[in-house]
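Exercise: predict the fold of this chain.
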Amino acid sequence: MITSSKDLECKSSAVTLSDMEIFIFPELLYSLVLANIMSPRIWRWLDDPWFAGIDKLTPYRRITRLKQYIMDHYVFNLDLDTWGLTTKEREISRFKDFIDMDTLKKSNALFGYEGDKYYFDIDIRTHFGLDKYEGNVIPYWKTETVEAMDAFKHKPNYGTGAGECVSLAALYASALFIVAGVPLKDIYLMATPLHSQNFVDLGDGILTNNRRLVTKNMWFNGTELSAQARRALENEQVTVVTHETGYIHTVYEKATISLAHYANFSNKLSRFLKVKFNNNLFGNFLRDASYLQKCFQIKWPIHGVDHYVPAERVFAYEHGSPYQFTGNTREKLMAEIELEEFSSSPLPERILLNTIENFVSENKIDLDKEADVERLKNQFEAGCLHRDAVIAGLSKFCHVKPRLPDVYKQFVPEQGELAIDRSMTREQIIARLEEIRVRNTVADMAFYAYRDLNRTETEPFIMAAVCRNPVCIDGARNLDTKALLEKISNMPDESIYDESGRLAQPDEVWNYGRGDGFEKAILLANILRSRLPKSEIHLDITPDKIVLACDSSHYEFRSTKGLNPASWPVPL
């Protein structure tokens, strides 16, 4: 039952799941995870030969097997045209009763994001391709269910599934539970203003980052992939952390996550992001801070005679090679370097990297101790770099301090624990969520994200369909009603959602070029409403058909969704 305007907004937001909506209603992020767990799609992965015998693997090997499956079946997508655009004014008006503009500016990059200099330096609107639009235009960036991710294969120029970062984080969390058998208590989802990723409490910890996994060793290896993974936690405030027990949000005073679990997460993540300094770490730092490589040279014996090579040339040879300068493959990498790259004499104005490495090997340097830092600084007397800047960069590289929501909150746990585990069947999990949804908001919202209109009110779905699906309206702009009906009728009568009762939104039908008759009727209703804003539109539903009435016109569509008989007015 809809209890208030806020309740309606939250439920309709669970249907569309834009990044902005998840920011306003943080409980929705985990609701998407539960919707994916309820879906039969990921459970079917267990029948794929790729996962044969997965139960016999170690937990880490199960996770890496899962990673490769996701790499093979999904690509990252952040195309602005996929789910369309809205405006700052429209979103502010919609959420003005829930959050104030000043708070929004401090927490959301597309509304000014005054929190981090980094995003001013990269010009955030240009970075995302928004510079071609007026300054008030922002993307919807809707988060996809696993079905909508799979359906990208039907879009032109996509051969596989796809999704944006929140979609991939939710997919990973669901698949880690279903396929890899990771308990939900060990999976934490994190959202920053511009990125979402997960922390898996296994061993030293594992981060998911879009399609990839990042271990602690990988976090500190200085490669381009690790630099991409580090970007969000190095430069952004973590806005939301969510878990099976609830969420904590940097803006809201109320938190529903278990305080004990949040403390465990904070401690584990902090340990993951910090490493003891050693000589390999300095080489990894130089790999990451490539602008400093020109200040260093490397001494290497060739036929028993010392030769010298610019550090940037050595690191350049790593590209396309299985070997690295750091670690136990250095000798093999150096053997690949052409002789003409070397000089028989030391290079002027360059620091000898070997000397730094020897010093670090012989001295236990703790970057948290001022005396140790001073001793390390003294090794950089010569050369072209600024010692303080190097040490500051090195310290940040070896110890990222995550900016998490503070614990000075009012912790109010959800009334009903999820209490689902991998020993349960999919049907038992759905039954459990049905049982607790009256007292657990996350479980309740999961059914709206799941899009099952036989288990939810219809108003949130219709509101989302006709208020937040601009792509089909724009795409049909040059089609008259006759041509539009022909285009819709020629689409395959095939929903992206397999089960009865579950429905796609209009832009999903338009983007993927297919839909059940009911979904086609909703698509047509959305477009007609935009063209005829003063006309009354009605949808009359029976289990096997739907009739759309608009003024004196009637359009009939066959349906296999088995919806309960009803008559729905489309809101003006």
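Check your answer against the key: The longest strand covers residues 296-302.
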